[in-house]
Amino acid sequence: MTVFVIAGRTGNLKLPMTPTVGYLEERFDTFNRMCFDGALPRIPIKLSSARSFIGRLQYRPIRDWRGKVVRHEDFVLRISTRYDLPEAEVEDTLIHEMIHYWIAFNGIRDTSTHGRVFRAKMKEINGKHGRHLTISHKSTPEELDRDQRVTIHYFCVSQLADGRTALTVAASTRIRAIQRTFQWSPSVRSTAWYSSEDPWFNRFPRCRSPKLFPVEPAELAPHLEGASPLR
């Protein structure tokens, strides 16, 4: 059986996932032990259909009589399920929010929301555990729509065995290798390659390995009208 590297992991060709509360709670406990010495108490984890964020930590500041924040309470961690992200990105989003929780729970003063303390902890986790945490999450739809850079994109539209349509924007030097992988994958029924300068494709990462991002055919259709088929 052919093995592929998808979304930073090794395994059979996989599509993005939609997390459950049970899955996130299990991952929270695992990352708490790995990255925070098990010091973070369990907090409610809730799913959201929000378009404006991928992950968010919410809490209530408790102030003294002078108005100074003395601690934080009522922590809630929310993960949006509107976007089907690869498992590694779901996990990185969870860890990202857990760093915010670690800072707030311990009353640590940082220079900004993603200041020196946050960045140092993020760098430590990335180095020790091979994660790919970043300061910002995956862009929101509003941010993606504002990205109007004009550049040429080479992309593959795949029809999947489960009936879905998926998109892969590829580095130009990796087109043949990615296509060979798709040809051998039982998950991919057919492929078609195109080039386009449409800024809409900026929202997808330029892949050097085979990754599939499910898209709605109706959303994709108008962006194929001006695309040129690759021979």
Walkthrough of the structure:
The chain has helices at 21-36, 87-105, 116-129, 141-146, 175-184, 217-224; strands at residues 4-6, 9-11, 45-48, 55-63, 69-80, 153-160, 165-170, 188-196, 213-215, 228-229. Mean pLDDT is 85; it is low at 1-12. By secondary structure, the chain is of the alpha+beta class. The strands form three sheets. It has a five-stranded antiparallel β-sheet with strand order 9-7-6-8-10. A three-stranded mixed β-sheet has the order 3-5-4. Strands 1-2 form a two-stranded antiparallel ribbon. β6 and β7 form a beta hairpin. The protein starts with a strand and ends with a strand. It has two domains: 15-139, Zincin-like (2-Layer Sandwich); 147-229, no CATH class.
